[in-house]
């Protein structure tokens, strides 16, 4: 038999039982579609995370104390940030950040329990978190520990009502943070939740005020949690990182290869995030892979039934000259065709499903071309693997027994 | 004068089982059938005639002995080779027709051509041959009918057309009229006579003496051996009891 005849006979075998063939393919269809959709969802999630992290300032270098180093909690100081700003070439701005303990924040008629974020004047530019109304505090205010506050978009609404409708304009109003009164000078633009931080739910005050008023006395009075430095461009990043590392090592009197601080870029953070989603993604891929195997078992099951049902047909074909090889190819092709047609429908369903998920929900999906190749290829392998046993069983039937079969 | 026989067997044995429980279904059968003969094989149930038929039809292999089919020793061929021999040299006609259901008469008749490894014909060629074969058995107007739309006699004609399509050296008919009423049986026997007259060599297994009477030569098998081999209508078979 030549190839087109084998295909033709296999196609006739499949179409002889349309419903059954469709149900058999369903396992493969679901498996293939699941692989594509799940990879599209996790790729979409990763793309969103990467974009969000990148949106928190371009060419950002992030310095944090190294966890687990003895005394590390006191290693990164406000002076370090100032030294970076003065001595490192190729950076355009430095912002440092320190958070208060949980405090009561009050306006005239609302009280919230929250922390306040102490930072420096370059913060909006370095972190790409622009001010919506009013202004951010200045270096002068920082130097003279002025009691001024800038509210996150959401906090402004919580404390003073929605300014667009009936609420009062928060700028110029007073908020009480702990026991200290602050004058509101600005409200940040809406930013939302980025990498698990709700930027709209923050209150920014000069970091010097945090040092003065809000840190427990047993800690170094000017320690900071994070220093952000913005490089001039992608090209100056590497040199800036090296300068910061050697500067801090010198200032902290530690060796460069065992520092008590960590210097990261957004790319490092994205990679770290991806490492956590990668585990999730491989779990999804395994679940989808299992459903492909279940689909393959379905094909094997139906092919075994089919071989038994069609024993007489096999005998007839053998009596007119079909060789064991002819019979093997006929049934293997049928199994392969079931899995490939199922795979094709699965690809269409997977791509369509990913698109619908992306278009309708708030879930973002990115269709990964290799996932289509992977899913379709797996379906083909499943077809050959699970089709071979029934096909071989058919090929080995004895013509006399097969002809006698009722 | 000394033409090559179609069938030449020497001391064929077929033994089932092993050791003490071994049973010889065939116990030394030597027959020679020449081109153009029309031969019946008769015998009661369990006589070994089916086993003989299966071996002559290359569906089975003898345990011992030699079988030369149209000049080719087929005693020790493997499954693939036997399939090719069935395809090229043999045409089967079965009691239960053995047509593919849900498949037209035309496609049923074309089936052996699909498995012909020596000649790769186009689909048009195959259809042409199948139409001619169906016409030769008087079914030119039933080409596109499926087996369930045909009478028993018509089904057997389709099967005969299928058996003829590869122009085989030997036609093997296993109780070809066993499932037919007497009128259809008569027509099928007429057709077989026709084919014989056209030069085909036919070997037919039957247990009906009336049907065996149609042939020139009757070979009688009993207990795995040839009991009698009578020519020119002579039938020395001990009649089996009714209800074979």
Largest interface: A-B, 22 and 25 residues
The low-confidence runs of chain A, each spanning 5 or more residues with pLDDT under 50, are none
Tally of strands of chain A = 14
> How many helix segments of chain B?
7
Helix content of chain A: 55-70%
- Give the N-terminus to C-terminus distance of chain B in angstroms: 40 Å
Quaternary class: heterodimer
Largest sheet of chain A: 12 strands, mixed
Low-confidence spans of chain B: pLDDT under 50, at least 5 residues?
A: none
CATH class (first level) name of the domain at 37-52 and 87-231 in chain B? Alpha Beta
- Relative helix content of chain B: 25-40%
Which key terms come to mind for this protein?
heterodimer; A: 406 residues; alpha+beta; 2 domains; twelve-stranded mixed beta sheet; B: 244 residues; alpha/beta; Rossmann fold; six-stranded mixed beta sheet; five-stranded antiparallel beta sheet; 31% helix
Tell me what you see in this structure.
The complex is a heterodimer of chains A (406) and B (244). Chain A has helices spanning 3-15, 18-55, 78-87, 123-127, 139-143, 153-160, 207-214, 234-252, 266-309, 311-319, 324-360, 369-395, 399-404; strands at residues 60-65, 91-99, 103-106, 111-114, 117-119, 131-134, 148-151, 174-177, 180-188, 193-194, 197-198, 203-206, 226-231, 261-265. Chain A has 406 residues and is α+β, with helices and mostly antiparallel strands. Chain A folds into two domains: 3-52 and 278-404, no CATH class; 67-259, no CATH class. In chain A, strand 10 (193-194) and strand 11 (197-198) form a beta hairpin. In chain A, helix 3 packs across helix 8 and helix 11 packs antiparallel against helix 12. Chain A starts with a helix and ends with a helix. In chain A, 40% of the residues are buried. Chain B is an alpha/beta fold and 244 residues long. Chain B has a domain at 37-52 and 87-231: Rossmann fold (3-Layer(aba) Sandwich). Chain B contains seven helices and eleven strands. The radius of gyration of chain B is 18 Å and the shape is globular. At the A-B interface, helix 10, helix 11 and helix 13 of A face helix 2 and helix 3 of B.
């Amino acid at each position: 038999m030549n190839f087109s005849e084998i295909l033709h006979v296999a196609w006739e075998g499949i179409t002889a039982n349309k419903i059954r063939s469709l149900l058999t393919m369903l396992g493969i269809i679901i498996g293939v579609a699941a692989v594509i959709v799940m990879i599209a969802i996790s790729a979409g999630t990763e793309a969103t995370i990467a974009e969000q992290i990148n949106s928190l300032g371009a060419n950002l270098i992030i310095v944090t104390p190294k966890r687990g180093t003895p005394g590390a909690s006191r290693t990164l100081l406000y002076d370090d940030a100032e030294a970076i700003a003065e001595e490192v070439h190729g950076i355009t701005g430095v912002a440092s950040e320190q958070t208060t303990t949980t405090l009561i924040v009050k306006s005239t008629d609302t009280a919230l329990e929250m922390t306040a974020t102490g930072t420096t004047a370059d913060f909006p530019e370095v972190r790409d978190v622009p001010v919506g109304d009013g202004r951010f505090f200045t270096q002068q205010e920082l130097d003279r520990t002025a009691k001024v506050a800038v509210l996150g978009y959401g906090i402004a609404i919580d404390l003073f009502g929605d300014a667009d409708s009936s609420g009062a304009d928060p700028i110029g109003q007073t908020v009480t943070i702990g026991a200290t009164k602050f004058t509101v000078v600005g409200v940040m633009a809406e930013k939302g939740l980025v990498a698990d931080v709700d930027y709209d739910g923050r209150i920014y005050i000069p970091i010097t005020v945090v040092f003065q008023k809000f840190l427990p006395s047993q800690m170094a009075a000017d320690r900071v949690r994070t220093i952000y430095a913005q490089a001039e461009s992608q090209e100056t990043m590497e040199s800036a990182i090296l300068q910061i590392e050697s500067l801090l090592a010198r200032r902290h009197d530690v060796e460069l290869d065992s520092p008590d601080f960590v210097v990261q870029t957004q790319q490092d953070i994205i990679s770290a995030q991806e490492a956590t989603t990668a585990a999730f993604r491989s779990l999804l891929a395994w679940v989808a892979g299992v459903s492909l195997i279940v689909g393959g078992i379905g094909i094997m099951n139906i092919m075994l039934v089919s071989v038994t049902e069609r024993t007489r047909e096999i005998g007839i074909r053998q009596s007119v000259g079909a060789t064991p090889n002819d019979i093997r190819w006929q049934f293997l092709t049928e199994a392969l065709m079931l899995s490939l047609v199922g795979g094709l429908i699965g690809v269409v369903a997977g791509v369509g499903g990913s698109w619908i998920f992306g278009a309708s929900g708030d879930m973002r999906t990115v269709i990964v071309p290799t996932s289509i190749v992977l899913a379709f290829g797996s379906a083909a392998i499943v077809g050959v693997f699970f089709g071979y046993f029934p096909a071989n069983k058919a090929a080995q039937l004895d013509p006399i027994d097969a002809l006698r079969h009722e | 004068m000394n033409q090559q026989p179609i069938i030449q067997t020497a001391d064929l044995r077929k033994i089932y089982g092993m050791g003490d429980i071994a049973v010889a279904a065939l116990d030394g059968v030597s027959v020679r059938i020449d081109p153009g003969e029309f031969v019946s094989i008769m015998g009661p149930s369990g006589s070994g005639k089916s086993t003989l038929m299966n071996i002559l039809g290359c569906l089975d292999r003898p345990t011992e002995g030699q079988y030369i089919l149209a000049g080719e020793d087929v005693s020790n061929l493997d499954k693939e080779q036997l399939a090719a021999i069935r395809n090229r040299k043999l045409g089967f006609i079965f009691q239960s027709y053995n047509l593919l259901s849900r498949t037209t008469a035309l496609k049923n008749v074309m089936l052996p051509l699909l498995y012909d490894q020596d000649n790769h014909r186009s689909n048009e060629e195959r259809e042409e041959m199948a139409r001619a074969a169906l016409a030769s058995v008087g079914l030119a107007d039933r080409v596109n009918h499926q087996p369930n739309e045909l009478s028993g006699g018509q089904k057997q004609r389709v099967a005969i057309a299928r058996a003829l399509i590869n122009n085989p050296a030997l036609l093997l008919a296993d109780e070809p009229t066993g499932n037919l009423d007497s009128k259809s049986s008569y027509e099928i026997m007429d057709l077989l006579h026709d084919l014989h007259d056209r030069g085909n060599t036919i070997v037919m297994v039957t247990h009906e003496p009336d049907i065996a009477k149609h042939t020139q030569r009757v070979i009688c098998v009993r207990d795995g051996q040839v009991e009698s081999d009578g020519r020119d209508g002579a039938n020395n078979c001990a009649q089996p009891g009714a209800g074979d």
